[in-house]
Every structure is written in C-alpha cells, then in structure tokens.
Design brief:
- The protein is of the alpha+beta class.
- It folds into five domains: 3-54, Helix hairpin bin (Helix Hairpins); 76-315, DNA ligase/mRNA capping enzyme (D-amino Acid Aminotransferase, Chain A, domain 1); 320-411, OB fold (Dihydrolipoamide Acetyltransferase, E2P) (Beta Barrel), CATH 2.40.50.140; 434-579, DNA polymerase, domain 1; 599-685, Rossmann fold.
- 36% of the residues lie in helices and 18% in strands.
- Strands 12, 13, 14, 15, 16, 17 and 18 form a seven-stranded antiparallel sheet that branches.
- A hairpin with a 4-residue loop joins strand 12 (320-332) and strand 13 (337-349).
- Helix 1 runs antiparallel to helix 2 and helix 16 crosses helix 17 (522-532).
- The longest helix has 24 residues, at 3-26.
- It binds 2-(butylsulfanyl)adenosine (IVH).
- The site of 2-(butylsulfanyl)adenosine (IVH) has 14 residues, from strand 3, strand 8 and strand 11.
C-alpha cells in the first residue's frame, strides 16, 4: 500500500473507531456488533504495525474507550491504578499465540486462571477500613465517574465488609456491573408498556442504568455485580485466584465459575465447556478471560498502553446466518426520523424466522456498504431486532450499484435534514408530511392516550382529504365528513362521537402523553403531571426546574422546551382546552378524612411509586411533610428508609410506621382493597 493511502486509511479507521467507541461507551447504543468493532480495531493494529511512523499515543489502539460524557453530571476522580482493557481474540489459534508470548516472556513456571467474561460495564470499588468509600466507572482509564450512590443500590455489593475477616486497610477491586436476563426482560416489558425506547441488550441497559442520576431509579433496575480483579498490597507473591477467594471471604461478590488451569490445553477445555454451558446462565457473558495466575509473573510480563500482557479475552462468536437483501424500504416515523429497513430472503436464526432487519441509519449503511442483492450476515447477538453485520463480498454481483440514502423524504419530497447527535436523517416537514401527521393522530387516538374510536384507514383518509390538519380538528368534524369515510355508517359515527366525548374525562397525564411530544412516554408524562399539576406550569417551567424532576434529563428537557416554543403547538393546547380536554390534575374531593390534621413524612421505597403515595396521603386528607419535625405525626418508612430521618424521628419520639401499618391507619377495615397497586392506565385503584 502506498504510504499516503495507508496514512489516510489509518486516519479514517481511527475516526470510525472513535465514533463507535462513543456510541458504545457514552451513548450505550452501539451501531455495530462487538465482533465487527474488533475487526476494525484489528485492521488498524495491523496497519500501525506495518507503518509504525504513523503510530500515535492518541490512537484508539493505544487507549481505552472512554465512558465519560461532555458536561458529565457526575463528580470525577482518578483511579489509584489505571483501569485497563483486555486484548481480544476470537480464535483458539490466537489463544495459543498468547500462550507462546507468555512463555517467551518468563522462564518461570506459571498457571492460568480462567473466568467468565461478564457482559456489563466495568466498575472500580475503593474500600477503606472495610467501608466502601467510592465506586468509579472506568471512564477514560485514568479518571472515572463517581457512581457510588448508584452502586450502593446493588444488594450484592457490601457497604461494609465482614468484620475481622482480614481485609487490607485500603484496596481497589474491579469488576463488572451487569443486568441479569430476568431484570432485562422485566425492564424492557415495562418500557414497551410505557412506549419508551427499548434497550438493545443487557450490557447497554446495565451501563445506561448505572449512569442514571436518580439512585432510586437505579435501585429498580435489578442490577448485579461481580468482582474479578483485586489490587492490594501483600499479594505480590500470591495467586490472583487466591486473592479472589480472600475477597469472597470478606463478603465481596466473586464468580463461582472460575477455574485454575495448569496449561493452555486445560484453558481450551474450559472455553469449550462454557461456550455451551453459558446459554444456561441467568446473566450475559460474551467470552472467557484467561489470566496468568501468579502476581509475580504478571508483574514480569507487564502491560502495553492499553492492556495487560498477562491476560486475554477469548470472545464467543454471536450466532449468525447468511441471507440475501431483496429490497430496502425507507420508513418515515411519527417523529419524522427516516429509518432504512432491509427486506431479506427469510432465514432461520436462533429459532425464529428473520425477514426484515434494521439498517439503523445512513452512517451504518455506508459503513456496511449495503447493496440490494447482496448476501449478508444477520446476527441476533442479544439485540431485539436482528441486524446486518457484514456483506459477503465474494458473492457480490459485479453489476450491483451502491445504495444511496434518499436526499428527500420518501413520503413528501422535502429535503431531509441530519440530526448529528443521532446520526439520523429527519424530514423537517412535521406539519404536512403525511406519515408524520397521520402518526400524530394515531398516537393521539391510541388506547393509552385519548382512546378514540378511529383506525388507521380513517385517519389516512381524513388527512388525505385535509379534513384534519391539527389534533383539535378531530373535535370539529361534521357528520358528512365522517360518513364519507370508507365503511363508516351511522353506528361508526356514533361510536366515534361517544369516544370523543369520553376523551374529555381522560386524566391530564394521558392528555400530555397524547400530544406526542418527542421523548415523553407515559411514565414521563405521569411524572410531569404530578410535579407541575397543569400544562401552563409545564410550559412556563425553566430548564432548571424541569431538570430537578426525578428521571428527567437534558434530552427530555430539550423536547419539552422545543415543543412549547412552537406557536402552533400552543394553539393546539388552547383549542383542545376549549374542546373540553383536561389540562390540569383533577382536584378530587378527598376519598376520606382518615388522615385529617396529620402530617406524614415519607422515606424509602414502597410497593407503589412515591408520587402515588403522596397522592394517596392527600386523597385521605393528610399532609405530606417536607422534613421530620416535632409536628410530624408519623414517619412512614419504606424499604431503604433514610438513616438520618429515622434517627431524627427516634430522637423526637415520632412514631415510625411501615407501609402496611400506614394503610391500616389511612383506610381502616379496607386492607384487602389497599393491597392493590395502581392500574397500568394510571387510574388509582387504591381508593
Ligand atoms: S480483567 C487488567 N476479568 O471485559 C484486567 N475483565 O473487554 C482487566 N470483563 O474492561 C479486566 N469479565 O470490563 C476481567 N472476568 C473478567 C471480566 C472482565 C468482564 C470486562 C472488563 C474489561 C473488559 C475487556
């Protein structure tokens, strides 16, 4: 290869890898599989070996991928020792090469320790005097984000080590925070119900959850942790496997599936065994980590800039299948995002027939160089929607032409614009682009929103005939217009009108959700409604006020402020208000006055959301306190109640009651009913 070509190729690969690192570590939504990423990295490593004059300390081959965000909301601290990554391999041959390198690097006898490679996100815990003082993400390897509060919500991580168990006075121990499959399924089912974007796989869910601002929300995510790398004085002449046994004795979570192996043959047996057995594990793994067990030999072998020379990760290949691209559709969604979707010749993969695969966006299409007629590999490596990982170029028809992403909206012809943050193309014509307009009406009418009796065909015809342009137009349709719709008779008009009438009683949080503000799912709408009480307060809220709300971050705030900045949207709110829709929380007459005159302070988690608990107290005529004072009637302590509040209540002699005791006070003789949780449509069944 010509030197200038090599230089350009190296630069291009570096940029591409950096972009993927960002998608993986910061955004937690990778565009390509780990396998493809590793191939890119390998190509770069090879080029840098061939052309050492272009090596650079800044290359992704020389530093670990960083999970640090710009304007990070977490405090950042330096790791006591750099937090490195691992060299990867996918073949037994390369594993044997690793073994040869180790044997060349030392003339002493050594053994290996084999461990599962947990597929989560790295964490570094610092214990001092047996107390967990800090938990940092890997960050850029030198500095990590302080997620101590979030880590403390993970039950298996002790805040205090077992007394007199012989732990060192101060030590760092590294490991992985991961999401067991059961928690992952539960989380995604809930997100589906809330119409929130699903997590592609447990790794992304774990990394995303660990970086949430609210540790209460983290606590609901069912995360777990395993520790696999102790750095402590006194082990210089000991074994790594022994250090993990000791750590287990101090109360720390370590894996029970590790094995000491006397040579590389035993390592290979372990790998073969776990390539099968891992499918029965309740948590995600993506390989086996092989480590030289003797600390002294580890020290002898040392590190590269990015990885230890005494360890390697053997990664399992995800399941894949080969099929053909029959055509590519460009779908325009409700928000205007244009998504390329490949229609495939049906193929069997992990027990299901795959016919379609998302191509995500233009970048991804370009990276893969996808063409209609290509033979492609599809993979389901933990992702929900199968994806195309690479093209089998040896089978490409030489007459095929590269696929070009449309420049204009396939639905309305408006030039597309690019959202750099999401690498997506959007149709900016949200007012008049038919699929966007129709999507908005369908969302508004959907069961969880306004529950209006109207289907896709009718919405399509109403929009096409321009009988409706804005949401409020649904409330002023006349009978002639309605009877002109395909298959609509008197009865359909009657049903439609009855549902419109009923929509006027739909509670505020559902109306808010129905407006279709980007990123406002059902749960967020409920949170906003209970915090701000009415739409005018939400519209008037400052960025800071919005950011203060639990689980509301910058992206949601941008969506809200952007939506209310649009005069057309304000008009929609006004017109819908005139039509009789609920734009504020209904001031309900109290359900009872059992709590009249009482001030109840709440702390910890209950079987119902905290906001619902506040609502419940108020509905029974009680007041929710803001701090424990002499005039507090009860401290209602849920699980993980705040220690300082409990302490203060004890000092002041304020009765501390459990959730069950509370229900007996609030709704005496009604215990059966009160065990109910709120129904999914947000209507409280507690009262
Ligand atoms: S040892 C210097 N052991 O895999 C030692 N890492 O792809 C580095 N990982 O950054 C880590 N299971 O986040 C080690 N049993 C295990 C592991 C493990 C998962 C992760 C870890 C690391 C990444 C490298």
């Amino acid at each position: 290869m010509d030197k200038t070509v090599a230089k350009r190729k190296i630069e291009a690969l570096r940029q591409e890898i950096e972009a993927h690192n960002r998608h993986y570590y910061v955004e937690n939504s990778p565009l390509i599989s780990d396998y493809e990423f590793d191939l890119l990295l390998k190509e770069l490593i090879q080029l840098e070996e061939l052309y050492p004059e272009f090596k650079s300390a800044d290359s992704p081959t020389a530093k670990v991928g960083s999970d640090l965000e710009d304007n990070a909301p977490f405090a950042q601290y330096a790791h006591l020792h750099p937090m490195l990554s691992l060299a990867n391999t996918y073949s037994i041959e390369e594993l044997r090469d690793f073994d040869s390198r180790v044997r060349k690097g030392t003339d002493k006898a050594f053994t290996y320790n084999c461990e599962l490679k947990f597929d989560g996100t790295g964490i570094n815990l610092l214990y001092r005097g047996g107390i967990l003082v800090r938990a940092l993400t890997r960050g850029d390897g030198s500095v990590g984000d302080d997620v101590t509060r979030n880590i403390k919500t993970i039950k298996s991580v002790p805040v205090q080590l077992k007394e007199s168990s012989g732990y060192p006075a101060e030590f760092e121990i590294r490991g992985e925070v991961y999401m067991p499959f059961a928690s992952f399924d539960k989380l995604n089912i809930q997100r589906q119900l809330d119409e929130e974007p699903l997590f592609a796989n447990p790794r992304n869910a774990a990394a995303g959850s660990l970086k949430m601002l609210s540790s209460k929300a983290v606590a609901t995510r069912g995360l777990d942790c395993v520790l696999y790398h102790l750095i402590a004085p006194g082990y210089e002449n000991s074994l790594h496997s022994k250090s993990l046994e000791d750590a287990a004795g101090w109360g720390l979570p370590v894996s029970e599936h590790s094995r000491r192996c006397k040579d590389i043959e035993e390592v290979i047996s372990y790998i073969q065994e776990w390539d099968q057995k891992r499918h029965g594990l309740p948590f995600p793994t993506d390989g086996v980590v092989v480590k030289v067990d003797q600390y002294a030999i580890q020290a002898e072998l040392g590190f590269t800039a990015k990885t230890p020379k005494w360890a390697v990760a053997y990664k399992f290949k995800p399941e894949e299948a080969l099929t053909t691209i029959e055509s590519i559709d460009y779908q325009v969604g409700r928000t205007g995002a244009v998504t390329p979707v490949a229609n495939l010749s049906p193929v069997q993969l992990s027990g299901t027939t795959v016919k379609r695969a998302t191509l995500h966006n233009a970048d991804q299409m370009e990276i893969l160089d996808i063409r209609v007629g290509d033979s492609v590999y599809v993979e389901k490596g933990g992702e929900i929607i199968p994806k195309i990982t690479r093209v089998e170029l040896s089978r490409r028809n030489p007459a095929s032409v590269p696929e070009t992403f449309p420049k204009v909206c396939p639905a309305c012809g408006t030039p597309l614009v690019r959202d750099p943050e999401q690498s997506k193309f959007f149709c900016p014509n949200s007012d008049f682009c038919p699929p966007q307009t129709e999507g908005r009406f369908l969302h508004f009418a959907s069961r969880k929103a306004m529950d209006i009796n109207i289907g896709e065909v009718a919405v399509h015809q109403l929009c096409e005939r321009e009988y409706v342009k804005e949401l409020q137009d649904l409330y002023s349709l006349d009978d002639l217009q309605l009877l002109s719709l395909d298959k609509w008779k008197g009865k359909s008009v009657e049903n439609f009108r009855a549902s419109l009438e009923k929509s006027k009683t739909v509670p505020f949080h559902r109306v808010l959700y129905a407006l279709g503000i980007r990123n406002i799912g059902e749960t967020t709408a409920k949170t906003l409604a209970s915090r701000f009480k009415n739409i005018d307060a939400i519209a008037a809220a400052t960025r800071e006020e919005l950011l203060e709300v639990e689980d509301i971050g910058g992206i949601i705030v941008d969506s809200i402020t952007g939506w209310f900045a649009e005069p057309r949207h304000l008009k929609t709110v006004e017109e819908l208000r005139k039509a009789g829709l609920q734009f504020s929380l209904e001031e309900k007459a109290p359900v009872s006055d059992t709590l009249k005159g009482m001030t109840i302070m709440i702390t910890g988690n209950y079987s119902i959301p905290r906001e619902t608990m506040k609502y419940y107290i108020e509905a029974h005529s009680g007041k929710v306190g803001s701090s424990v004072t002499a005039s507090t009637t009860y401290l209602l302590a849920g699980s993980k109640a705040g220690a300082s509040k409990l302490e203060k209540a004890r000092k002041l002699g304020i009765p501390i009651i459990s959730e069950e005791e509370f229900y007996r006070i609030a709704a005496p003789g009604n215990e059966e009913d009160t065990k109910e949780t709120p129904q999914s449509d947000g209507q409280m069944s507690l009262f």
